[in-house]
Specification:
Layout lengths: L1 H32 L2 H6 L18 H62 L1
């Protein structure tokens, strides 16, 4: 009888605690994988730090060309970082949906198995 109690203690107490910690680790991993803090901090930075220099002399055409080039680099950086944050949100939502489903299945599995055995006996 002691082994049955040990099994249910493991099934219903120990392993769900570990599964909750694993889900929490997946959430924290998402923040590290997608570098959320750095991405939000650099949201309007140029893509891959591509910046053109204005030079010392003032030439309106060159000044306008460099300004537009730097603006385009910032827009591309903004778009890429928005996509990265979008994928981060998708990842987190999937973890928050799949994690509890796995936990619920793990908790209910022994009862479902017992129910299926009892149905087949009757």
């Amino acid at each position: 009888m002691n082994i049955i109690l040990s099994y249910f203690y493991w099934q219903l107490i120990e392993t769900p605690k570990k599964l909750i910690l694993i889900i929490k680790d997946f959430i924290i991993f998402g923040f590290d994988l997608f570098s959320v803090k750095e991405t939000i901090g650099n949201l309007f930075s140029p893509w891959k730090r591509y910046v053109w220099d204005y030079g010392r002399s003032f030439d309106f055409a060159k000044y306008l060309d460099v300004f537009i080039s730097n603006l385009i680099a910032r827009i591309i950086g903004f778009i890429m970082r928005i996509f990265l944050l979008f994928f981060f949100i998708i990842y987190e939502v999937l973890v928050l949906i799949i994690g509890p489903i796995v936990l619920l299945f793990f908790l209910l599995y022994p009862f479902i198995a017992l129910w299926m055995i009892l149905i087949n006996i009757i």
